[in-house]
Design the sequence.
């Protein structure tokens, strides 16, 4: 909180940036709590397949982005 007040005092952190950061951080925290309950129900193989699928989609997205620009 001290850093926020210091940056705000020097004009380095506008109020809209602070609010956007607060919204982003709270959304990430809520998503983590909700996803934890879902993931804890998976068995080890299902979790492994889910991670493999996420890695595949992430890799394809990065390749798409690299070749699209």
Sequence:
């Amino acid at each position: 909180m001290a850093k926020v007040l210091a940056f705000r005092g020097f004009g380095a952190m506008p109020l809209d940036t602070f609010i956007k950061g607060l919204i982003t951080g709270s959304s990430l925290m809520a998503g983590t709590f909700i996803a934890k309950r879902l993931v804890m129900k998976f068995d080890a193989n299902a979790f492994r397949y889910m991670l493999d699928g996420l890695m595949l989609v992430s890799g394809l997205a990065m390749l798409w982005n690299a070749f699209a620009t």
